[in-house]
Automatic annotation (TrEMBL):
Name of protein: UDP-N-acetylmuramyl-tripeptide synthetase
Domain Mur ligase N-terminal catalytic: from-to ranges: 22-71
Compartment(s) of residence: Cytoplasm
Pfam family, one: Mur_ligase_M
EC id: 6.3.2.-
Single GO BP term: peptidoglycan biosynthetic process
Amino acid sequence: MKLVTLCTAAGIALPKDGDANVTGFAIDHRKVAPGTVFGAFRGATFNGEDFIAAAINAGAVAVVASPEAKAEGAVHFADAEPRRLFARLAAQFFTPVPETLVAVTGTNGKTSTVELTRQIWRMAGIRAASIGTLGVTTSDESVSTGLTTPDIVTFLGNLSGLAREGVTHVAYEASSHGLSQYRIEGPRVAVGAFTNLSRDHLDYHATMEDYFAAKMRLFDEVVAQGGTAVVWADDAWSDRAIEHASRRGLRLFTVGSRGADIRLLARTPGGLGQRLEIEYAGQNFTIELPLIGAYQAANALVAAGLVLATGGDARATFDALKRLQTVRGRIERAAITPAGTPVYVDYAHTPDALEAAIAALRPHVAGRLIVVFGAGGDRDTGKRPEMGKVASEGADLAIVTDDNSRGEDPAAIRAMVLAGMDSRAREIGDRREAIGAALAEAKAGDVVLIAGKGHEQGQIIGSGAEARVLPFDDVTVAREMAGALGR
Ligand SMILES: CC(=O)N[C@H]1[C@@H](OP(=O)(O)OP(=O)(O)OC[C@H]2O[C@@H](n3ccc(=O)[nH]c3=O)[C@H](O)[C@@H]2O)O[C@H](CO)[C@@H](O)[C@@H]1O[C@H](C)C(=O)N[C@@H](C)C(=O)N[C@H](CCC(=O)O)C(=O)O
């Protein structure tokens, strides 16, 4: 494809004497082939501009970089915000993309919301996919990209690949890193959703205001003019998100007990799920949602909002909520033991998340809540006793085990977790053994929660050159252990 064609389509001026044949886009000089447009960005670890000469040597025909950069021998697109310019150009190259794109931002709930949106579309017979922490998910398969919001080249490549496979609808996660690094620029989305905001990633964003501003780029720029903002209305930051969307002239679709479009009237937890009473367009609906926890109810209703905002039928959409499958590693019902105990696997690996998962499960426990959990090595040590305290106070039986000990001594990590716990706590380092003990202990009426790893597929042992990932999947192990109890 000619560079001039891409520039014209993107509304970008072509630097003089600049036409060339373009074969691809790269932001890593090691991926440059003849005909590539190279994005040279100043990052946290490297200055991409240091690799411009090597990229041109490898055949780069154009370089998108700051005005100060030197790009002799290639067309230089100079811009103070090169990531954004690169995205605009690349979006013209990676075509077609699926016709309906929706993006979800917020601190929590992004993964579940995009996955539930995909499920609802699928139940309506639509070829749908999701992109996020679980990877690129189509039907029952997920292919990891390593990030929640992949880099711009991977993202656009995924979108056009999906379109070529016949996928028409994609829901994707817009992380604050992704939004602030213009990883999802390019194709404008029809609908964007905001779930909630709480303290996170302040190493990167400095203040909560900066963090919120990064999230709001979704409404300020990424959602197309004339598009819709779906907002969970019950969060402390919701009113400000609504303000951003209104200022931009987006159509508002609010969801929650304070929601004007999908209004949550009542929520009653019970059995393996919860009953939701909602009002939509003057009609009342009762939904038996097969997911646990107030936050999963919120995610399911925001997903319904996304589907309705992109033209879904109300009755079919609310009906689909009754048939949702639990999301991988998000209060996922992994097994039911022969004694009838449901076993849940959740990604909760911070004190807050562990507390929330325990609170979500508590109304479903007739007997005891048994929690298996640990804390990671080479990460925030302060959270270890705090997680211990949360488990000690919230569970009836807590078993401390190993979870990605990395470069640290796993016994020392467990000791720090146990420091926050009372004397009833048990310690079983081997995670498989710990899960087996929890399931063997469980009786009818009990509930087991295995927390920390969620969708992860391995135990990380060692660090640096010594690091190894031993295959480990909580869901598989829970199923095996539950099966073994039945024999
Ligand atoms: C802090 C952060 O977000 N970093 C991301 C960012 O890196 P960066 O721009 O700082 O890049 P850098 O490594 O300094 O390199 C600068 C440039 O030189 C290039 N380079 C570098 C080395 C080389 O040999 N050749 C070369 O060309 C790089 O490709 C890059 O373009 O851009 C890279 C490419 O898109 C990402 O891979 C990288 O994610 C790192 C690995 C990461 O761990 N990010 C996490 C924090 C993240 O993004 N998380 C979010 C949030 C998840 C959540 O919600 O919790 C996510 O969306 O996953």
